[in-house]
Amino acid sequence: MNTFESGGVENSRKKHDGHAEYDDIIKHYEDSEAEEGAKEKVDCEPHIEEYESLIIAFEKVYSLENLRALQTEEEALNSEERESVKGALSSVYKKLEFLKKRTNVTDKRFGDLCKKYKIISNAVGFINNGVIEHDR
After folding, report:
1. Same domain flag for 24 and 91
2. pLDDT of res. 15
3. What pLDDT digit, counting tens, does each position of 54-66 carry?
4. Contact yes or no for 66/81 (Cβ under 8 A)
5. How far, in Å, are 4, 30, 79 from residue 58 at the CA level?
6. How many domains, the chain?
7. Does 57 lie in the same domain as 81?
8. Could you tell me if 21 and 71 lie in one domain?
9. Residue 80 CA: distances (Å) to CA of 55, 61, 76, 83, 84
10. Looking at the structure, do residues 111 and 55 belong to the same domain, yes or no?
11. Domain coverage including residue 58
12. Among 15, 22, 92, 122, whose Cα sits 20 to 30 Å from the Cα of 70?
């Protein structure tokens, strides 16, 4: 029974400074995270191989040098390569998240995998005040 069904809305609102309407949403995500963490971890090796093949494919398809050469927001917005790279970068990141949450990868090995992601992510860069930052 949630706070709305139990009639405890008023007390809950006072307790959470007006954010009671978010309690059920927060609880849902906390429960989902706990459930995800409770799932049995799978062997990381095949997933690391897949991750590394994604990185290799990314570097073959996209020129990190060309991406790093983009310096302004205008250049970024006019770059077809930078626009098309976003989907590939997202796939690599999702695999990295999977490795952390669902496999038995060690912290050290995960850190090494993150470094590989950071290289390609920094090549794409982040637009900040009209300039592309390539060193986050």
Report:
1. no
2. 46
3. 999 999 999 999 9
4. yes
5. 48, 34, 17
6. 2
7. yes
8. no
9. 20, 13, 8, 5, 6
10. yes
11. 45-133
12. 92
What sign does the dihedral 75-79-82-87 (CA atoms) show? positive
Residues 52 and 87 in one domain: yes
Whether residue 123 contacts residue 135, with contact meaning beta carbons closer than 8 Å, is answered with no
Cα angle 75, 56, 117 (rounded to 5 degrees) comes to 65
Record the tokens describing residue 60, joined without a space: 């073959």
pTM for this prediction: 0.70
Q: 97 is written with which tokens?
A: 């998240």
- In angstroms, the CA 59 to CA 98 distance is 21
- Three-point CA angle 91, 45, 41, nearest 5°: 85
Average pLDDT, the chain: 84
Q: What is the DSSP letter of 112?
A: H
pLDDT digits (tens, 9 = 90+) for 27-53: 666 666 666 655 789 999 999 999 999
